[in-house]
Specification:
The protein is mainly beta. Helix content is 0%, strand content 39%.
C-alpha cells in the first residue's frame, strides 16, 4: 500500500503479505500490527483495519478489506465499510482510516 501525504505525515510505501494484514497507527506499544503507519493522526486506531491477501484458483491475488473494528470507521472511496462487511478491493483502491488515506497497489499493477 502507499500511504499518501496528509496533515500528519508523509508518503510511505508499506508491503502486504499473504493472509491477514492488520493496519494501524504505529506506536511503541503496538503489538499485533502487521502494517504500522507512522503518523500522529489521533483518529487512526492502533489496529484500524485488515486487508486479507490470498490467491484464487488461477493464481491471481485477491484482496479483501474489513474494519478491525475501529472507533472512526474504515472508508473505501468515501463509503463507510460496514462493521461486519468484507469488501473485495483491487489495484488503485482508495482507503481512508481516520484522517489518513492509502492506495492499494498490486505487484506490477501500477500504471505509468
Amino acid at each position: 500500500i502507499t500511504v499518501i501525504e496528509n496533515t500528519f505525515g508523509f508518503k510511505q510505501e508499506l508491503p502486504l503479505v499473504m493472509g491477514d494484514n492488520v493496519i494501524g497507527r504505529r506506536n511503541k506499544d503496538t503489538d499485533g500490527v502487521d502494517v504500522p503507519i507512522i503518523t500522529s493522526d489521533p483518529s487512526m486506531g492502533r489496529k484500524h483495519c485488515i486487508i486479507n491477501v490470498k490467491e484464487d484458483k488461477e493464481g491471481k491475488l485477491v484482496y479483501t478489506l474489513r474494519d478491525f473494528p475501529s472507533l472512526t470507521g474504515t472508508f473505501l472511496c468515501n463509503v463507510l465499510v460496514g462493521k461486519k462487511e468484507q469488501i473485495r478491493i483491487e489495484e488503485g483502491a482508495i482507503v481512508t482510516i481516520g484522517a489518513t488515506t492509502f492506495i492499494l497497489h498490486e505487484p506490477g499493477g501500477e500504471k505509468e
